Amino acid sequence: MVKKRLVQLFFVILTLFSLWYLNGVLCVKSKHGIDQARALYYQPPNSIDVVMMGSSHIHCDIDTGLLWEEYGITAYDYSAAEQPLWCTYYYLKEICKYQKPKVVVLDLFAPARFKEDYQYLWLDENLQGMRLSMNKLQMLMDSVEPERIPDFFPSFVSYHDRLRDLTSEDLLFPFTAARTLGSFKGFSPYFNQEAQERPELDETASMSVTVKSEDYLMRIMQFAKEQGIELFLIVTPYITTNEDEVIYNRLRSIAEVYELQFNSTNYDYDEIGLDFETDFSDWSHLNYWGARKFTEYLGGELKARYELPDHRGEAGYASWQESAEAVRKEAERREEP
Question: Could you tell me where the DSSP H helices lie in the chain?
Answer without folding.
Answer: 2-26, 34-39, 56-61, 64-71, 85-98, 109-113, 123-127, 134-143, 168-182, 211-227, 242-257, 269-272, 288-305, 318-335
